[in-house]
Design goal:
Layout (H helix, E strand, L loop, with lengths): L3 E3 L4 H8 L4 E3 L16 E4 L8 E4 L2 E5 L4 H6 L5 H8 L4 H6 L2 H7 L7 H6 L3 E4 L4 E3 H6 L6 E7 L4 E7 L9 E8 L2 E7 L6 E2 L1 H9 L5 H11 L10 H20 L4
Parallel strand pairs: 1-3, 2-3
Antiparallel strand pairs: 4-5, 5-8, 6-7, 6-8, 9-10, 10-11, 11-12
Helix pairs in contact: 8-9, 9-10
């Protein structure tokens, strides 16, 4: 239960408060979500400190960490695959509260946008001025305050997909794939504690040792071992994740979205 909230005057002050054991609060959709069981007694309010802008600068699209997922879903400047992933969250109220920076920092395995950001080779800029891949940020379980998300121009076709039991249920699988000449990213959530990439499968698609949907399915199936979900078996999740990736990879190779 939150007992104290501090409004810092600058990002530097916010970063200093984090070192004292306080937690960042932006949209609040995770901290205030009961199942997360987060013990946040003291929080740092980020409202007004983080940019909410979405702006094209040369070959890079800069998204302020305070941009909501609804604004991302609505922006024609954002790649279609990311707009789709943001729109997968069924509640417009949640989409209008949750921020892209907070979604990355929460690093939930069932995030609809983290696998997409992996596929798009997105980067984050932290309050300390460091720039790193979203993949590295999540894999290393970093907690640095994110101030920007940077989307470089990438080649190829990309797709995001998910499987869920109902529109209000948590997903059983979230997958994102991008395929280009000489380049491929295969990312998925719900298969490990955080979203992952299947780099052996990516290499197989690039080298064309994995071409057919069946071959890609078998390679993914052999590479993952997801835990059982609340209402689905591990075998079901393994099957559905492999199916979604195989289908998306073949469609992306054909130039579909």
């Amino acid at each position: 239960m939150i007992q104290e909230a501090v409004k810092p005057a600058s990002l530097k002050e916010a970063a200093a408060l984090q070192k004292q054991g306080m937690m960042f609060l932006s949209g609040g959709t995770l901290i205030n979500w009961a199942p997360a069981q987060i013990k946040a007694e003291k929080v740092i309010l980020l409202e007004g400190l983080l940019s909410t802008g979405i702006e094209q600068k040369g070959d890079t699209l800069e998204i302020g960490a305070g941009a909501t997922l609804q604004s991302i879903a609505d922006s024609p400047a954002v790649p279609e695959v990311l707009r789709t992933g943001a729109g997968f969250i069924p509640s417009r109220i949640i989409r209008s509260m949750a921020t892209i920076g907070g979604n990355i920092a929460a690093n939930r395995t069932d995030s609809y946008i983290i696998p997409v950001l992996f596929a798009l080779q997105a980067k984050v800029e932290t309050a300390g001025g460091e720039i790193m891949d979203v993949y590295s940020y999540c894999t290393e379980e970093r907690s640095d305050l994110i101030v920007k998300v940077l989307l470089p121009r990438v080649d190829g076709s990309a797709a995001v997909d998910r499987a869920l039991r109902s529109s209000a249920a948590y997903p059983s699988a979230v997958t994102a794939v991008r395929v280009a000449d000489g380049d491929c990213v295969v990312a998925l959530g719900c298969a490990a504690p955080h979203a992952i990439r299947l780099k052996d499968v990516e290499q197989g698609i690039v080298s064309k040792s994995l071409v057919s949907e069946e071959d890609i399915f078998k390679a993914v199936y052999a590479a993952i071992n997801p835990p059982a979900g609340l209402k689905e078996t591990a075998e079901y999740k393994r099957y559905i994740e492999s199916t979604l990736i195989a289908h998306s990879a073949v469609q992306c190779r054909k130039g579909g979205k």
